[in-house]
Amino acid sequence: MRNDVVVLIGKQFFKKTFYTKGLFVLLTLFLMVLSYVTINGWNAYEKRHHIAEHHQNQSRESWENNPDKHPHRMAHFGTFAFREQHPLSIFDSGIETYIGNSIYLEAHKQNTANFSEASLSTGLVRFGDLNIALLLQLILPLVIFFIGYASITSEKEHGILKIIYLQGASMQQILLGKALGLFLVSTLFFIPALIALWSISFIESHTLNSGVVMRSLLITASYVLFFIVLCFVTVIVSARSVSSNKALLSLLGGWLLFFIIIPKTAQVIGNSVYPNLSKIEFKAAIEAEVAKQGDSHDPNDPHFNKLRDSVLKANNVTDVKDLPFNYSGFLMSKGEEQTAIIYGNQHKKLINTYKKQNSITNSLVVLNPYLAIKNISMGLSGTDFHTYTNFLSQTETYRYEQSQYMNDLQMKFISNKAKGSEGKIHVVDKSYWRSAPKFSYEYLPISKTINHQIVAFFALIFWLLLAIITMTKFSNRFKFI
Amino acid sequence: MYTLLIKHFFRSKTVWLAFGILMVLGMLSISTGKQFLSQQQTSINKTIEQQQKHLERQRSFHKEDIGLLSYYLKFSFLNPVQPLAGISIGQSDLNSHIQNVSIVALEGQKHNTDLVNPMRLQVGNLDVSFLIIFLFPLVIIALNFNLLSEEKEKGTWKMITIQAKSSFSYLLAKLSVRFVFVCLVLGLLLLVAKVVLGIPFTSDFSAIIIMSYLYTLFWFALCFFVILLRKSSNTNAIVLLASWLLLVVFLPVLVSNYITNKYPIDEAFTMVIKQRDAYHQKWDTDKKETMERFYEHYPHLRKYGFKTEGFSWLWYFAMQQLGDDDSKEERAAMYNKVKQREELSRKIAQFFPPLQLQLSMNDIAKTSLTNHIDFLHATNTFHEKIRLDLYPKIFEEHHPDTVNFEKHKPEFFKPESNFSLFKNMLSILIISFILIGFGIFRNLKYFS
Question: Is the pTM of this model over 0.90?
Answer without folding.
Answer: yes
